[in-house]
Amino acid sequence: MPVFKDFKVSVGLVKMLQAYAESRGVVFDKVAQKHGFDSKALNNGAASILASKFANVWFKIAETSKDSCPGLNLGKQSVHYFPSNSILFSLMQNSPNIGIALDLLVRHHRIMAEKIQPVFLNKEDFLLLSWDFSVLGSHHLPYLSEAFLCTCYSVLTRLSQGRIRPVSVNFIHQGPKRVNDKAGYESYFNAPIHFLADRDELVIESRDLDIVIELADPALLNLMERYAVQMGQAVSQGNKWSGRVAGLISEAVFKGCAPLIDTIARELALSKRSLQEKLKNENTNFRGLVQTVRKKIAIDQLADPDVSVCEVAFMLGYSDQSAFNHAFKKWTGKSPKAFTMTGR
User: Fold this and answer.
1) CB 226 within 8 A of CB 301
2) Helix (H) or strand (E) holding 119
3) Is the separation of the CB atoms in 23 and 77 below 8 Å?
4) Running DSSP on this structure, what letter comes out for residue 36?
5) CA angle, corner 255, sides to 250 and 256, nearest 5?
6) Contact 88, 107 (CB under 8 A)
7) CATH number, domain at 116?
8) Are 155 and 92 in contact (CB under 8 A)?
9) pTM to 2 decimal places
10) Do 171 and 95 share a structural domain?
11) Most buried residue, 8, 74, 143, 157, by most Cβ within 10 Å?
């Protein structure tokens, strides 16, 4: 087992792992508990776990089920998970075309995996899609890379409604021993498969970047990208409790829910008192974080000329616009109207 550095993956990837376990007839909770992971954390959309635990649970599931293609089969689960549960997929789904969707994938991928990043290389008439696993040092995890390529393909297939056909799919590893398993790769990707290649990559035609994504909503894209930026900022704050709490507050606000300390403490598997102590040790408190998050969301939203002051007030949970105006003036020294006119 290679040694992972101390980085994390999102609960979204863990849910895909859970679906993978169920598809292989393995009880996910039992395996997860043996490796020190409480599956109750899956109820918290902002949660994350150490990549080492993710890998240990995944490899144990593959070993238990005798899966000869764990990367391929885990990647297949993405098409079932992404559509309704991923902010990252929602961003891509509401992009005008495939090219912009891939650009958003690069910019916001840390929401899903803190360190692992997608890499795209233009070469003549082709686009080569791969992943940067340098965070793992000299170790190469063939099935992890494979799973990410399969996930990328699943997403592109869904976004393009099946119009994208890979030119080829290349893997560094030697591939499965059984002929039927190798045929499964070609059937899934509907493209030539090359094992023992120089790099793991998905090759598509550059013209596919212009494929229009049907039913994309520009207004929703604008709103969700702001949310994605805030989620990314929370990830950047590392393991600080204040950063994790701020992320959950943002999530509650965008869902139209009141950010309550009891609820957020429960999502973090802490008592209210314990959470208050942790925030105090970081020289902050829950009420202050709520105001900071609301202020940032308000300023970000008011920067959009198509968003009214009334809409922002409603989004932030204020009973009326005057209450929001009063709060905003305390934050910035200006009324929302004056703020938007000066732009600062």
Assistant:
1) yes
2) strand 117-123
3) yes
4) T
5) 100
6) no
7) 3.90.1520.10
8) yes
9) 0.62
10) yes
11) 74
Q: Is residue 137 part of a domain?
A: yes
Residue with tokens 């393991």: 239
Identify the burial level of 287 via C-beta atoms within 10 angstroms of its C-beta, where 0-12 means exposed, 13-18 middle and 19 or more buried. Answer: exposed
**Tokens describing residue 69:** 């293609």
Residue 259: inside a domain, yes or no?
yes
Tens-place pLDDT, residues 172-225: 888 888 888 888 899 999 999 999 998 889 999 999 999 999 989 988 888 888
25-53 pLDDT tens trace:
999 988 888 877 766 666 665 566 777 77
| Residues 205, 282 within the same domain | no
Query: Which alpha helices (H) appear in the chain, and where do they start and end?
Result: 11-23, 28-34, 51-65, 70-76, 78-85, 87-93, 98-108, 142-159, 179-189, 218-236, 241-254, 261-267, 272-281, 286-302, 309-315, 321-332, 336-342
In the chain, the number of structural domains is: 2
Whether residues 201 and 84 share a domain: the answer is: yes
Distance separating alpha carbons of residues 306 and 222, to the nearest angstrom: 11
Residues 269 and 206 in one domain: no
CA distance 80 to 52: 24
- Residue 38 has which token pair? 């409480």
Of 194, 210, 226, the domain-final residue: 210
The residue range of the domain holding 295 is 237-342
Is 319 within a domain?
yes
- Contacts of residue 209, defined as CB under 8 A and 6 or more positions apart, other chains included, come to 97, 98, 99, 102, 127
**Residue written as token pair 């493209």:** 191
